Every structure is written in structure tokens, then in C-alpha cells.
Amino acid sequence: MYAEAAEKAARFIFREMVDDQGRLLHRFREAETAITAHADDYAFLIFGLLYLYRATFDPAYLKKAIVLQERMVKDYWDDRAGGFFLSAEAGDELPLRPKELYDGAIPSANSVSFFNLTILSRLTGDAKWERQAAELSSAFAGSVSQHPTAYTFFLLALELMRGRSREVVIVGEPDSPQTQQLLAVLDEIFLPHAVVLLKSKQSGPALGEVSEFTGALTPREGNPAAYVCSNYSCRQPVTDPRALKDLLSA
């Protein structure tokens, strides 16, 4: 039910709140869209799309997240000092372009983007996202080290980036009971540094376009299999949920 509501919201945004150049718009009111999106709009939508992929395992959402992240880097990234400006350079009407980092009741665009870039690097195996995350981290290292309690979401992303990388790939059909049993294990264990991908016959080609390291992963003797990888080096697959749990608990 919640995933369906999230998909409905995503469809609305991409139907009504994206201009003809692929840029997000900030406001929809009385069937009228207006105002160029802020960095926050990109950061939180990308964040939502990454979790929508985790909920549905539809590679289309992962692709959309990548496209938006590329657009955000192009329009909002500070090439001189690093980090994301609040406003886009094109059409900016402010005399100065602010750059927010403080994580109050709502985290800042830079903190959320730090998290997004790290997750994207793990899901796709594309080193450019890891490099971008490292540049963002370096840009704000001084501020964060002086007042860490003001940047709690940034620290969450930093912990994710510095933690042990784990990419768990389940290869099997979504409606298979064996596949569901393997996925259920991932919901039983707290895995703060892990990302999860599902490769099926239908999703495999599209997933391979954005996550090349999944291309060689196959079922085991015709049965759904789980691959536990670290830095995209994968162990021998397992088919037993208990064996998967043991691998993840090690």
C-alpha cells in the first residue's frame, strides 16, 4: 500500500513537475507549475527514489535517481569549493548563492546528497559517485569537525561511507517463495552499511545498464541465490536463508 502511494507520487512529479529540459520545478498549485527547483528538491526526491527502488526493485527508479543526480551535479555543484549551492546557476535571481549544511528538523541538501552519492556508488559500482561523495565530505570537513552536533545527518552519511561496504544481490524471480525467503532475511537483520539489489529475468537487462557488476551473477543450479559482495567482490552464492543470515552476521 505504501509503496503504491510512493509510486503514485513519483509518477505525478515526473509527469507534472519536470520541464522540457529535464529540470525539476519547485511548485505545483492549481494545475500550474513554477519556480526552478532548489537543491533540497533534488536531494530529497533522489533519496525517495533510492528507497522506492528498495521497496519495488524496479530499476526504472534507480535510473531516474541517477539522471536527477547528474542534473543536480551539473546545475548546483560548486566547482571551486565543492558542495551544492541551494539554487541553480541558470536563472538564479539571488545576489549570492547560499550553500546550506545545517541539519535541523529537516536535514540539509548537502547532507542528504552526501548520503545519496554514497548509496549510488554502492548500488551502481560507479566510482564517480564515490569520488563526488568524497569531495563533498572534504568541502565541509572543517565545519563538521568543529560543531558535529549541528550536522547529524551528514555524520550518518559519513559513517555509511567509511563503513564496511556490503552489496547484497538476490538473483531470482520476485514471486518465487525461495526469493522471498532470502529477501526476508534482509529485513530481519540491521544492516546499516548494506545495499540490496534484486536481479530477475525481467529486470536483469535494465539493472545491468546501471549496475554492471550484477551482469555475471546468476541463479545457482536453477534456484534463487544470494550474493554477498564487498567492494563488488562477491562470495560464492548461497540458496539457504540460514546460510545467508550467517554470512550477514559474520
Structure description:
The chain is of the alpha+beta class. The chain folds into two domains: 161 residues, Alpha/alpha barrel (Glycosyltransferase); 84 residues, Glutaredoxin (3-Layer(aba) Sandwich). Helices cover 50% and strands 12% of the residues. The strands form two sheets. It has a four-stranded mixed sheet with strand order 4-3-5-6, with helices on both faces. A two-stranded antiparallel sheet has the order 1-2. A hairpin with a 2-residue loop joins β5 and β6. The protein is globular.
Tell me, rounded to a whole number, the average pLDDT. 94
Order of helices and strands: HEEHHHHHEHEHEEH
Give start-end ranges of low-pLDDT stretches. Answer: none
Number of helices: 9
Task: Give the overall shape, derived from the CA principal axes.
Answer: globular
- Under CATH at level 1, the class of the largest domain stands as Mainly Alpha
Q: Classify the helix fraction into a percent range.
A: 40-55%
Strand content: 5-15%
Radius of gyration: 19 Å
The CATH architecture term of the largest domain is Alpha/alpha barrel
The number of domains: 2
Number of strands: 6
SS content category? alpha+beta
Biggest sheet descriptor: 4 strands, mixed
Going across the biggest sheet, name each strand in turn: 4-3-5-6
Distance between the termini: 34 Å
**Would you tell me which CATH topology of the largest domain applies?**
Glycosyltransferase
Helix and strand layout, with pairings?
Elements: H1 2-16, E1 25-29, E2 32-36, H2 39-56, H3 59-76, H4 109-124, H5 127-146, H6 152-162, E3 166-171, H7 177-188, E4 194-199, H8 204-210, E5 225-230, E6 233-234, H9 241-249
Parallel strand pairs: 3-4
Antiparallel strand pairs: 1-2, 3-5, 5-6
